[in-house]
Amino acid sequence: MKVSLAALLAVSGLLANAQDAASAGGPGRPPLKPLVVPKALEDSINRRNLLKHAHQFLDFSKLSNNTRAFGSKGHQATLQYIKRLLDQTGAYDIEFEKFTYAYSEATSQLYVDGESYPTKGVGYSPSGNITAPLAVVNNLGCEASDFPEAVKGQIALVQRGTCQLGLKVAFAGAAGAVGTIIYNNIDAEPISGTLGAPNRPEGPYVPVAYISGLNGKAFIASIAEGNEVVANIRVQSFVEDRETSNVIATTKTGDRNNLIVAGAHSDSVPAGPGLNDDGSGSMGILEVALRLARYRVKNAVRFIWWSAEEFGLIGSEYHVEHLSDEDRQKVALYLNFDMIASPNSGYFVFDGDGDATDIPGPPGSEVIEQLYRAYFDSHNIRTGSAVFGGSSDYQPFVDVGIPSGGLMTGASGTKTAEGAEWWGGVAGVAYDVCYHLACDVVENLNVDVWERNSKAIAHSVASYALSIEGIPREQRPPVRSLRVSKLSYEERLHLSCDHDDDII
Predict the structure, then answer these.
(1) Is 92 exposed, middle or buried (0-12, 13-18, 19+ CB in 10 A)?
(2) Are residues 411 and 328 in the same domain?
(3) How many C-beta atoms surround the C-beta of residue 437 within 10 A?
(4) Angle, nearest 10°, between helix axes 279-292 and 47-61?
(5) How many other C-beta atoms are found inside a 10 Å radius of the C-beta of residue 56?
(6) Which helix (H) or strand (E) holds 293?
(7) Given phi > 0 = left and psi -120 to 50 = alpha, else beta, which region is 236?
């Protein structure tokens, strides 16, 4: 009897699989899990499960006045939920990486000549309720000499720019001002702000309101016309040290000398529950991790949920800085997912080769970029470019030369006409009108985009869990300090507060 080559190969494959399963399982042992397949893992991701997580995250925020800011009850519940679901799979080694960081929160109200104006609270501002005329500060208030004698007993009005907000306010306090209004250096309202530290040697802090450039210029114009402009600033503020944790889950199978790391930050801003920023990324990688648990991998996969990102990439920097040189070398690549469901979304891929942004990632980042471009091309989706500008948790990995990449969908920046043509939505409107606001709830999520990006995460994680072909694995030189650690508190905070610096 003549047997075809195809039949022989089929029988051979079946025998090999049976022997593989027998050798790995054996009598009385559980059968070997199948090797992960990118398409199968991608297909297992669905919006129903994502939305289930979203409603849980929203419920957690209600434990702490509608926020999941790091160290809050809402945030702690988020971390426990992630760990509990992963524990149930039995597929991961899970740890809490604990650290302590200073949490600050301030709310402010501003009334000028009896009329209410929008304002942002400024971290480390003292509490107070003060009423006084406005006095315009010279230049940008970065020198003590910029504060004229007329500031004494009044509220200093100073523009943002050049130096830290804390220095401006300290100089105002030293000059005898009873309060400070800082106005933005663009017409728009500021996103957030901090004085950078609980106190400064240049002078005592005074209560602070932070307003739009448009309103600040209007107050100056009124004063220039000879009018007395009287303001009332009301600030409530507190500062405390909080212990928090990164959640780290590493597959029990796979080569740990070639770690695939995927991360998203688990905390929100104090102002809201953060379902898009960055609940969307956190829930996206959680769902991928839960589905990956059904498979075995060749390269170990590590999922990390960062804490205190909104205070300046604190958790990710802590993690990378505390890795030994040997352990850093084991990380083959890093994938970051911060805001992947913006309501007026764009599809942005990090520009690994720097062709579009002139800021390439470490060697190998271009390979990650190509994988994501090819994935979205296969689904007839155009992609824009995100820049490694330092505004999310990829930065510490970039600092130590680890190939990096990821996805994002935009924050408070405005969608262009070209973007609306590519992706739908509305040109001239922010990608996320609820960015860093209380309205960042379940209804703020673009579920179609969120599901597609989560499937893209699954595709990339499964692909690299099988092979890191093209990713350089030469020994990297040791790094003694990270760029982020050299920045002031205010500069660090800006890293997590302006994701629009990240898109081109």
Answers:
(1) buried
(2) yes
(3) 17
(4) 130
(5) 15
(6) none
(7) beta
Q: Confidence class of residue 487 from pLDDT cuts 50, 70 and 90?
A: low
Domain extent for 220: 104-239
For 170-188, what is the mean pLDDT?
96
Residues 297 and 444 in one domain: yes
Q: Are 210 and 116 in contact (CB under 8 A)?
A: no
Report the DSSP pairing between strands 208-211 and 179-183: parallel
- Please indicate whether residue 243 is annotated as part of the active site: no
Burial zone of 29 (CB within 10 Å; 0-12 exposed, 13-18 middle, 19+ buried)? exposed
- The CATH number that applies at residue 124 is 3.50.30.30
CB under 8 Å to 18, separation ≥6 — which residues?
none
- Whether 182 contacts 160, CB under 8 Å: yes
Catalytic residue among 42, 309, 366, 369: 309
Determine contact, residues 96/86, Cβ cutoff 8 Å: no
Residue 210 region, left (φ>0) first, then alpha (ψ -120 to 50), else beta? Answer: beta
Q: For 304-317, give the DSSP string.
A: EEESSGGGTSHHHH
**The pairing of beta strand 179-183 with beta strand 155-159:** parallel
- Helix 447-466 to helix 365-378 angle (10° resolution) is 130
User: What is the rounded CA–CA span in Å between residue 349 and residue 172?
Assistant: 43
120 three-state secondary structure? strand
Question: Residue 488 — very low, low, confident or very high, per pLDDT cuts 50/70/90?
Answer: low
The size of the chain, in residues, is 504
C-beta separation of 463 from 40 below 8 A: no
Q: Any idea which residue has 């029990």 for tokens?
A: 252
Query: How far is CA 405 from each of CA 325, 389, 412, rounded to the nearest angstrom?
Result: 21, 12, 21
Question: Looking only at Cα atoms, what is the longest distance across the chain?
Answer: 108
Q: Are residues 309 and 443 both part of a single domain?
A: yes
Chain segment 305-349, per-residue pLDDT in tens:
999 999 889 999 999 999 999 999 999 999 999 999 999 999 999
Structure tokens at 319: 């993690």
Structure tokens at 31: 């059968």
- Looking at 173, 205, 239, which one is the last position of a domain? 239
CA dist 99 and 110 (Å) reads 36
Q: How far is CA 254 from the centre of its chain?
A: 28
Domain boundary among 239, 262, 287: 239
| Residue 129 near residue 234 (C-beta atoms within 8 A) | yes
- pTM over 0.85, yes/no: no
Strands 128-136 and 122-123: unpaired
Residue 377: count of CB within 10 angstroms of its CB: 11
Q: Are residues 471 and 339 in the same domain?
A: yes
